[in-house]
Amino acid sequence: MSKVLPELKYSKEHEWVKVEGNTATVGISDHAQGQLGDIVFVELPKAGATVECMKTMGVIESVKAASDVFSPVSGLVAAVNDALVKAPETINKDCYGAGWMVKITMSRPEELQQLLDDKAYAALIEEA
Amino acid sequence: MSYVPHSPAERQAMLDALGARALDDLFAHVPAEVKCGPLRLPQGLGEMELAAEMARRARQNRSTEELVCFLGAGAYDHFIPAVVEQLVLRGELFTAYTPYQPEISQGILQLIYEYQTMMASLCGCEVANASLYDGATALLEACAVALRHTGRNRLLLDGAIHPHYLETVQTLLRFQDVEVRVVPPQPGEFRSNLKGLVERVAEQDAAIAVAYPNFYGAIEDFSRVADEAHKAGALLMAVSNPFAFGMLQPAGSLGADLVCGEAQALGVPLQFGGPYLGYLACTKNLVRRIPGRLVGQTVDVKGRRCFTLTLQAREQHIRREKATSNICTNSALCAVLSHFYMSCLGRGGLRRAAELCVLKTDLLRRKLRGAKGVATVPEYPVFNEFVIETVEPAATVLEHLLQAGILGGLDLGRYDQARAHQILVAVTEKRTENEIERYVEVLQGMA
């Protein structure tokens, strides 16, 4: 059973969002990392880049597949977890902690309302 | 039964859908002078008569079998040991492509892996791909790598890169919102304008491309250009004839992030202009951006060494429209030829062949200096190619040489009217002292 943390919000594309003030920390869910299998490569946006809600912001490549990572909110990339470039397997080991991908300074915080809470997300992956 | 899969009615339906009246309408954009037209054969020829007629026509082609070749400009007449061709004709290898279900063909994958290793080592790079179509495509693909890697949309190209390559890059990037700036050599110069490239590079540029040796044969240490490119956050691409690395410092060790171009000189016959061998080598950090096939070494379930296509998430059968390129094959047969050639010669042999090119080039260059009919032989450092300025127009001189069975070089006036009295001359290790002397004699005998 995949772990779903109650304090986070989730996108339908399996990204999680942790909100602190105007900053959204983003990663991929335990369900997503489990489905992908061993992650071997991560491509992230550069700090300072503009990202848009539900547009591609990066790529995750596992031994099984290459998948786009979508930005769950619009804004400016404030920080990038560069450690993932050298150690992409961190996402498999600790997707909600050390495996975070980017921090985004939100330009339209109201977009958060379209995201799922833990129960709705758990139901979504249950269906799948 | 007919083996043509489409019936006349189906063809007509397709033509109607396209708004074309006849099949030939689809080729209307091809210039008339490059179409061969109808064969105009008499009706009812027997096989023997037909073969004789076609052989007679084929003899009108002139090749380096018969002519003495001093023509280069991107394709070179090097000696290829007979064993190279013999090996490549083996049934297991005689295919133009990387096989489908590639891992079944461990032999071909191993050869491509070894080709990649030799090519990377020759270029002074960490990685080389399994090859591309030709030199022009290789440069275009290197540009695409740089554009993706930097997220920028401007390129700064040395104007002394082969004009066909420049044209290909400009054509294919025309509709991609990329600004291509070309910096030609200074007036009257044959060396690349490295100073001009350094002065112009800015933080909007994805990369600078330098030709080494350049189209006019000039060689120069471009490491300062690489430093300045890197300072601006841009990459440095070297467009090179890798044969020259038998002797020259490899472009990778001078600071090039990408080394690319035409590798025909390494074991591929001239064969009337193709198929040839585009190559692309780079630093390891760019490996996920490069196009085409890439063979890697791994172990099977029993721990035995084996080979596999790797990093395929770059390719379009995995990533569709987000692939790094629409190329998902390579010039496998030419790459294997090149593998056998490099293996036959070895490191020492490649160096010796390159040295012979330099020595013989220098011999002809010295003999032409002061020869009758030669106005000047411009002075600049070269590998196996150089420019002479003739008293008569280059076209006239070359026609005269051709009459004597000598392919004398390239008329540079074909690319630039101001150079109508300049000939680009190449000398490989194949040219004998007699042939070199005859070149000078025939040229002097013109007046």
Give an overview in words:
The complex is a heterodimer of chains A (about 130) and B (about 450). By secondary structure, chain A is α+β, with helices and mostly antiparallel strands. Chain A has one domain (about 15-105): OB fold (Dihydrolipoamide Acetyltransferase, E2P) (Beta Barrel), CATH 2.40.50. Chain A has helices at about 30-35, 85, 90-95, 120-125; strands at about 10, 15-20, 25-30, 40-45, 50, 55-60, 65-70, 75-80, 100-105. In chain A, the strands form two sheets. Chain A has a six-stranded antiparallel beta sheet with strand order 1-2-3-9-8-5. A three-stranded antiparallel beta sheet of chain A has the order 4-6-7, with no helix packed on it. The longest helix of chain A is centred in the last third of the chain and has 10 residues, at about 120-125. The radius of gyration of chain A is 13 Å and the shape is globular. In chain B, strand 3, helix 6 (about 165-175) and strand 4 (about 180-185) form a beta-alpha-beta unit. Helices cover about 35% and strands about 15% of the residues of chain B. The relative contact order of chain B is 0.14. Chain B is of the alpha/beta class. Chain B folds into two domains: about 70-80 and about 345-445, Aspartate Aminotransferase, domain 1, CATH 3.90.1150; about 80-340, Type I PLP-dependent aspartate aminotransferase-like (Major domain) (Aspartate Aminotransferase, domain 2), CATH 3.40.640.10. The interface of A and B includes residues 41, 43 and 66 of A.
Concise summary:
The complex is a heterodimer of chains A (128) and B (447). Chain A has helices spanning 30-36, 83-86, 90-93, 118-127, and strands spanning 9-10, 15-20, 23-28, 39-43, 50-51, 56-62, 66-70, 75-80, 102-106.
Architecture (CATH level 2) name of the largest domain in chain B: 3-Layer(aba) Sandwich
Number of strands of chain A: 9
Number of helical regions of chain B: 12
- Helicity of chain B, in percent? 25-40%
Largest two-chain interface = A-B, 8 and 6 residues
Average of the residue pLDDT scores of chain B: 94
Through-space gap between termini of chain A: 12 Å
Overall number of domains of chain A: 1
- The CATH class of the largest domain in chain B: Alpha Beta
- In spatial order, strands of the major sheet of chain A run 1-2-3-9-8-5
Q: Say which CATH homologous superfamily of the largest domain in chain B is assigned.
A: Type I PLP-dependent aspartate aminotransferase-like (Major domain)
Into which percentage range does the β-strand content of chain A fall? 25-35%
CATH class of chain A: Mainly Beta
Low-confidence stretches of chain B: none
